[in-house]
Design a protein that fits this description.
This protein is of the alpha+beta class. It contains three helices and six strands; from the N terminus they run αβββαββαβ. The longest helix is centred in the last third of the chain and has 9 residues. β4 and β5 form a beta hairpin.
Length: 86
């Protein structure tokens, strides 16, 4: 499981939005989507405004890989480990 540093958590939650680009089965990134992020203690929670049927959401749930950008944090993560996708 990927652990966020306190600095990363603070930088990600500050703008209240992040860019997520889940990986496709061939390893390429989908187009980034702006989504809201909420921090609770040391956990980050993200949610799809269009529900569980949106393409980025399904891709993140199936592949468990995505590229995230927010508050100067720019890295590849396993949303299943680093984020709660609800």
């Amino acid at each position: 499981m990927t652990a966020w540093t306190n600095d990363e958590l603070a930088r990600i939650e500050a703008p209240e939005e992040l860019q997520i680009a889940p990986r496709r089965h061939d390893g390429t990134l989908r187009n980034p989507r702006t989504i809201w992020v909420v921090r609770h203690d040391d956990d980050l929670y993200i949610r799809s405004v269009n529900g569980r049927t949106s393409a980025w959401f399904r891709g993140a749930r199936v592949r468990h890989e995505a590229h995230l950008q927010a508050g100067g944090v720019d890295n590849d993560e396993d949303p299943g480990a680093a984020l709660t996708v609800a």
